[in-house]
């Protein structure tokens, strides 16, 4: 076990640097002693008889950043819907860590347990400054509630400052979120999710609509988060996937509601079934 929810209310003032960020981003009650943070086994989801997920099995190790690729309609978003409790599977098992059965938890409970989700469209409070967006995101988290009734504790301020640096918006803190570029808004929204200190972050096509520079800034941000939380990144932009996965990370290819192939990006790109169904020749 990594701490308890109550322990996370009282936070020590951490030292500076990424190690400190890892400390304050430590997840709550997720038992990852055996390695995996997410375990999906033989998941099936049907919509009017059509199997959006058809025997999907996928395991994510704690701290891993996994890119998931695959053609339109492969079931990538549906997989995230199952993990976040938005869609109930017809059959199969879904666990967060060793002990938390996601199929028996509702959406708010799953979010509180430490799963954050980024949808494609950025949703920030446009009228509010960047800093306040992060503060507001923190206030929706009950764990900070007691300490925020009067004013921000030193710990809370530190977490906001560190998050600003992580998302590369430390010079935009006083600007209204509505004035930010699309890429900056996307990074701000990721920062807002980070304020909830997720153990697992799900990002559905985060680079969509971004310029090349914004895409690479996003890749750098997710790279900085590596190890502080586990991530699943669904993406069609292969340059972005290449930047995130590098030569080592595992990439999952989904098609027709299940895993078609898994391996390094080079390995899956050479896979005949992947070439046929997704990448083309
Ligand atoms: N609520 C729903 N009702 C009916 N069918 C649905 C529903 N949600 C998803 N589907 C269908 O399930 C299949 C999988 O959809 P999903 O959105 O998970 O694919 P995806 O891999 O995310 O695709 P994309 O890359 O286009 O985002 C699609 O055929 C889709 O039309
Ligand atoms: Mg989708």
UniProtKB/TrEMBL annotation:
PROSITE patterns: ABC_TRANSPORTER_1, ABC_TRANSPORTER_2. InterPro entries: ABC_AA/LPS_Transport, ABC_transporter-like_ATP-bd, ABC_transporter-like_CS, ABC_transptr_urea_ATP-bd_UrtD, BCA_ABC_TP_C, P-loop_NTPase. GO terms for molecular function: ATP binding; ATP hydrolysis activity. The keyword ATP-binding applies. One of its GO terms (cellular component) is plasma membrane. It comes from the Bacteria. SUPFAM superfamilies: P-loop containing nucleoside triphosphate hydrolases. Keywords: ATP-binding, Nucleotide-binding, Transport. NCBIfam families: urea_trans_UrtD (TIGR03411). This is Urea ABC transporter ATP-binding protein UrtD. It comes from Trinickia soli. The gene is urtD.
